[in-house]
Design goal:
- This protein is an alpha/beta fold and 416 residues long.
- The protein has 13 helices and 16 strands.
- The longest helix is centred in the middle third of the chain and has 31 residues.
- The mean pLDDT is 91.
Length: 416
Amino acid sequence: MKGQTAELAVEGGTPVFSEPIGQNLGVRKVGAEEAEAVAALVRDGVRGDPIGAFCEAFTRAHGVRHGVAVDSGTAAVHVGVVAAGVEPGDEVILPAISDVGSVKGILAHNAIPIFADVDLLTFNIDPVDVESKITDRTKAIVAVHLYGQPAQMDELMAIGRRHNVPIIEDCAQAHFAEYRGRRVGSIGDVGVFSFITGKHMTTITGGMVMTDTDAFAERAALFAVGRGEEEGTKEGVFFRTHVGLGLNYRMNPLGAAVGMVQLNKLDDIVARRRETGQMLDQLIHDIPGLSPPHIIEEAKHAYWLYAVRLEEGAFTADIYTFARALKAEGVACMPKWYYLLYDHPAFLNPEPPKHPEYAFPRAVYDDRERYFKGMCPNAERGLAAHLVITWSEFYTKEDVLGVERALRKVADAYRA
């Protein structure tokens, strides 16, 4: 039965927030310090190695020896796959729930994505399902730290070691998140990051690939920066030769300058997100039918987005209706159904691609029975029962209290 509450804003009532929060937060992340760092490069010319300096600082912050800065998070996944030794036609296991950038980097290398189901509490990859899907063609496993919540890295690393398969950490949403005292990106064999605007820190657009393995670092640099070319001398003159197919994924030095300033702020940024995120965790514990993010043991969530779980059967509204009502109260939020990666037409459309933008690996189309609705039931069930709220280091205590009031108002209105 519908709760006896104040009229929802979506039905004509007064919204909790007179001015919506959570909109266009990315533009607030950079300011005078970043502008001056860029202006100095433009004014004085690029001197030294700003990209190398940024790589060194970022990897040092994670206790990792090697870093290659690239121009996007998607490029970082692609380079990470190459670094780990994946070849075209090899299989790469990844979670069924993630941003599409996690799978595009695999497809771009003509490797075959194999989707593993997720844990219903965290929405992160389920290690048990991962191990069940390993074959002799499996050459890498991607662990996505979704929304800022670390995946179960001990279990995943043990699986990787048992089967001699490298673990790639996708940390695009989890800057400075921690698992058992270590920052994510430093635990697996390769760590990849995104620095697009809106992430915890930004280089405006960009990404990073990190590793402690020398051979992985050499492959990453040759592919992403060296363009598959080697230079030297031949008969006393400069000589360049091609030793592989590489792409020019190099980060812009202006972005590296922004990144250096942002990196100095990152501890504070994550601390503020964590403080307000944990505040909301406590506030919504007593709202029937709603659950805050589930934090696994000895992990520190980085709160890139705030995922709210709706108990099945607790509300008369589906996830889209609930989200529309919450948005009308002034809280930026969305369902994440498009995060179900195999729902992409590249996997479920039985016809070969007609346009170059869908020119994914031939093997995807030659073996279509591997992709079907229902293949990862927890992922589909979980996405139908959670929505994410935009989160920010700029939120105040009053903002968080307002988000709690809006959640309570909508939940009361739609309670079954």
